DNA sequence: ATGAAATGTGACACCGGTGTCATAATGAGG
DNA sequence: CCTCATTATGACACCGGTGTCACATTTCAT
């Protein structure tokens, strides 16, 4: 099968390349008759313009790259879903690129990515949105980027985050108001800024309600289900057993719930469990998890939309936004 | 900041574009001295080649597109993970494109995708891997593609599937051998060929063990958790209550488990539950789900690898492979 | 009818690389 | 020292579009 290019169309239709290009891009100043004629040839020859050539001429690829390194699959799915919504709205496409923050190869990896595929912009999700090294590199390379859920504030780039500290405060307060005071906490991955923020919200709630912070009640997780299972073991063995557990995300909370159930503890009668994120699993298990609904899709959608506007050369106005997190109470928390 | 192109490098280094290009691509016939010189200029000018220009010249984008329309998020995550592994191994990138099979806009949507971004190949996941309309279109457009978990056999294109019928047979047989005979079944999405195959395996197992098939025990799901919850209601209200439920995927099985637990039924003492896929949720809940481990990542990895070889012009040899599914027994199934 | 403005069209350079081929420089063998 | 093969290098066309600008044609007010 012979390739159909803009040249063949032009020859066949008896007009110049440029006129074909005009029809292709719906530019004005083409007579209706000519336009019709060219459009007919498009159909006849089954012509599809070459996006690469177009990209070269316009210096655009209409592709956004999404960087992630996140143990929580559902978080990534939600990120993708928000990013895709914004992309498709503007006729952009999304390229996904998981990679590792640690190991020293990050910059080389991203450099290779940019060499392999021309990307108009990059969405950085945690923990990349907090990587100063990466951000410096992108600035130097003049690559457009948007940060999702980043804690860095003194940066003039696009950033959409949610209020993790406040969310953690509220859910801890919810437990306290139910009557809990012996509340265990499971931390997230140390590379993620959300980890520190959620921890800090937990501590602030305790202190606000005059409950002494007890480091023995804190377990180190990393947002993965598996780490939650390990932390759960540690926590359920504490004497006296905490009457409530607040895990930094729903996966880890689900792991606590599973172990508690295995040990024939009744949730929430014997122990209350709270999570964070409002991941699907929070409502797929019984009892459903009390959690903080974090607007992951919406954050990403907004970030990508701003990014695309910026790429288009528009004046984006407000670059940095903070969305609210919301407490969702389900069956996993109750009075002790 | 001025753009650094191959021309600036050439001028600065005092050589021709072509020589720079040679160094860039590690081609032979460049004297060590010249190579050194050019490499030094790369560093000095912080040069990054333009992938689009390269793509235009070579007629390659080194991007694979992944099509999906699947209610199960974890399935998609696994597909992506397998596809990415193969892509990165060959220095390709992955662009994701969820879209709808139904609605009539599919072909236009894909046509637009191909117009927007030059893709070297497409991975079709269910239900697209069974869409004759789409496959015809891609053939006509001369687009390389690979099918994952497709039931179409009389096609000369790349296809990697797993044995769904056999998997469903085995898990049903497992229930029968435990002593169950009143086994309810929840179907998957009607657009997916796996749905028919799993149903067929269920029926074959019944018939092999001389158990009469009873259509009243069959509920219509669509692979989503939500549809599983609806089916669960219907099934748990059947009198006499089935002693076991086999759901066509783990999400729906999890929904059955949740409702059963809510109704204070003990699993597996009062009712056994089996799923399909070995999705993460199968081991994140208690009791863990007995299920069929489907090698989703591996299927996709192999499919993409074959696809990339084909794009590279290699003789791919065997185009169609079937991988085995494996029974995983956990706590959700037991004697009635 | 006439000149100015608006509209339609094409020639040509350009985007930033790669492929082909001719030619220059180097090295081995006699 | 010369010939011939080998290695190194560059000129130039080309990939398939878009941007600029010049020019031809039409429209419209005077």
From TrEMBL, chains A, B:
PROSITE patterns: HTH_LACI_2. Keywords: DNA-binding, Transcription, Transcription regulation. Residues 4-58 form the HTH lacI-type domain. Coiled coil: none annotated. It comes from the Bacteria. InterPro entries: HTH_LacI (IPR000843), LacI/GalR-like_sensor (IPR046335), Lambda_DNA-bd_dom_sf (IPR010982), Peripla_BP_I (IPR028082). Transmembrane segments: none annotated. This is LacI family transcriptional regulator. It comes from Pseudoalteromonas aurantia 208.
């Amino acid at each position: 099968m012979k390739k159909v290019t803009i040249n063949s169309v032009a020859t066949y239709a008896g007009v110049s390349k440029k006129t074909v290009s005009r029809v292709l891009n719906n530019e004005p100043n083409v007579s209706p008759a000519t336009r019709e004629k060219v459009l007919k040839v498009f159909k006849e020859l089954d012509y599809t313009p070459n996006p690469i050539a177009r990209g070269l001429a316009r210096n655009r690829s209409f592709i956004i790259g999404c960087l992630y390194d996140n143990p929580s699959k559902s978080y990534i799915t939600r990120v993708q879903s928000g990013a895709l919504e914004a992309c498709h709205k503007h006729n952009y496409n999304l390229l996904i690129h998981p990679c590792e923050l640690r190991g020293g190869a990050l910059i080389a990896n991203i450099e290779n990515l940019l060499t392999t595929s021309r990307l108009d912009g990059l969405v950085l999700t945690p923990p990349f949105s907090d990587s100063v090294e990466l951000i410096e590199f992108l600035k130097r390379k003049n690559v457009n980027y948007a940060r999702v859920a980043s804690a860095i504030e003194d940066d003039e780039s696009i950033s959409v985050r949610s209020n993790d500290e406040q969310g953690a405060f509220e859910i801890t307060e919810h437990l306290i108001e139910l009557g809990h005071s012996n509340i265990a906490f499971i931390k997230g991955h140390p590379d993620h800024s959300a980890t520190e923020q959620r921890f800090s919200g937990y501590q602030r709630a305790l202190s606000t309600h005059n409950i002494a912070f007890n480091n023995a009640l804190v377990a180190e997780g990393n947002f993965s289900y598996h780490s939650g299972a390990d932390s759960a073991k540690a926590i359920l063995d504490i004497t006296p057993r905490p009457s409530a557990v607040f895990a930094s995300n729903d996966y880890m909370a689900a792991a606590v719930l599973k172990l508690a159930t295995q040990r024939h503890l009744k949730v929430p009668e014997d122990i209350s469990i709270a999570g964070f994120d409002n991941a699907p699993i929070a409502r797929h298990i019984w009892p459903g998890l009390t959690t903080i609904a974090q607007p992951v899709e919406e954050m990403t959608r907004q970030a990508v939309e701003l990014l695309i506007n910026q790429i288009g050369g528009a004046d984006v106005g407000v670059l940095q936004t903070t969305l609210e997190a919301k407490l969702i109470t389900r069956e996993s928390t109750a009075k002790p």
